[in-house]
Amino acid sequence: MGLENLFLGFQVAITPFNLFMAVVGILLGTIIGVLPGLGGANGVAILLPLTFTMPPTSAIILLTCIYWGALFGGAITSVLFNIPGEPWSVATTFDGYPLAKDGKSGEALTAAFTSSFVGAFFSIVLITFFAPLLAEVALKFGPPEFFAIQLLTFSSFVGLGGGNPLKSLATILIGFILSTVGLDIVTGQLRLTFGFTDLMKGFDFIIAVIGLFGIGEILLSVEEGLRFQGAKTDMNMRVVLDTWKVLPRFYRTFVRSSIIGFWMGFKPGGATPASFMSYAFAKRFSKHPERFGKGELEGIVAPETAAHAAGVAAMLPMITLGIPGSPTAAVMLGGLIIWGLQPGPMLFVDNPDFVWGLIASMYTGNVIGVLIVLAFVPFFAAILRIPFAILTPLIVVICAVGSYAVHNSMIDIWYMLIFGVIGYVFKKLDYPLAPLVLALVLGDMAENALRQSLIMSQGSLMIFLNRPISGVITAVAIFFFVLPLLTPWWRKIRA
Amino acid sequence: MRAVDSMTAALLMLLSAAVIYEALRLGAGWGSEGPESGFFPFWLAILLAIVSIVLFVQALRRRSQEPFVNRERLIPVLKVLGPLAGFVLITDPPGPWSGLGLYVAAGLYLGFYMRWVGGHDWRTVIALATSIPVITFLIFETWFLVPMPKGPVESWFGY
After folding, report:
1. Co-location of B56 and B87 in the same domain
2. How far is CA A478 from the centre of its chain?
3. What is the pTM of this model?
4. Does residue B125 belong to the interface with chain A, where contact is any CB pair within 8 Å?
């Protein structure tokens, strides 16, 4: 029955207009991924207003393809310029840049793109089969289960995010607090406005994304004095084919990294640890671990496969539970609401053509994506040779236009500026930004789920532990929350 | 680094205090329809208060002498922020004054930054500072019908 639906989806995804949207999305996404200060999340956020008038399926295809493109684009800057465009491309620079300096950038990029494609494809196949099952289970979920899943989402930032767990917790709380500003839809009261009418509308997370990730990132990169001194590209058909002959040798790494990527990826913030973890595994199992870091092709295959598998897997909780696994998925979730769709398991019942069109477009989008990036690498690399004094104000103007367009309101451009400064300071102090954005998006849902659960239980928090599914999820969430406290203690016992 | 880190934690403490105050005003307990408006923010702010106090102590105990940012690295940051604030200000200043609109402001901002920071020659500056806003205008106003703030220049052209 899954295949039947997938076939239906392909009929939606391969209409000429939707294929055109996919191509446009991949091109824009790769440019966004290459440019400093523009990544998947805020690239999608800026372009979201342009999709308001489109049919939802075409709109989501455009946005997801921007996301795939941004993932591909990150590999280009990592290999050619030694600049990871996104945190999960950091591991790609380890072996990618040494290869490029040796004049083997063509091989490195072909390996990166092919691995991305393989990782993505693996996750898409799993999504095709698991998404309907997960959605069916989720249909039986009540408010306590949804709240428990939210707890789990945020607990994984605290327990597995690395860095200072208290700073992760602080940004989560800030995000939730910001989400409560404005009108309380349950009681109709104004909250946290402190008498300012401008605060009545609350904070839109899209503006937060553009400010935190866009402006903040630009401030950070000018401070670090980024100069783009890139290696030359030598992409041609021959190099691609020659590399493809070598790659099947790494089939074990492909399989291992895909599994790591998918497993880490459907939990929030998973792409970055997945890429590092799979790099470490590849090195450990390699016959020549000493070659890693000096330009080993396998050192590109591992992190790229895992990062892309994780990036795609982040879509699974978004379409089945209505809970995004990454900031980019969060922006798309915002899009769903704007286009008049209800994110969550009901999508599979009410809008099968949308869901299956989206899933089918993941296949077409990634095929188109890998072909486009292989063919146009020199073009994308040339973008980074535009002088910095032109790129910087241009990206700033694009961010401002995107912020204004969300609600046609001037105050949002000011918010963008403020969020930009906050993003810059937080990034320097190691406060993670992704949890803040996710909390801001999910705030209303979390609060409603909590309120409804408490009404069901007449105020007892035990409802989250008494019901079987929510009990298990809550227990795992609590475990992750206390994990940072347990780890030093555990180390002491072992020592 | 230490100063900014502890200051941020202190600001978060202030934020949580303000939220707790507001949540108590709204009622943070159990009302006729279940949890009151202030319930969720209240507990969030309580948690944030605890977390930020610990972060504040952590920041003070840090021994790093490394500055948050040194002067020579701060200048390029301010060179982006200053003109950016100016750009937003002339687009549509708060209060009764009317601004130049986003497109004209963007052109001025692009030109200013390219000339001042990049030192590009006037021909490049003028060509890009006029063409980029015009292209943006065509994409947003005519193609996707997304309106941006407009000023006197656009109205001369009849928009």
Report:
1. no
2. 24
3. 0.87
4. no
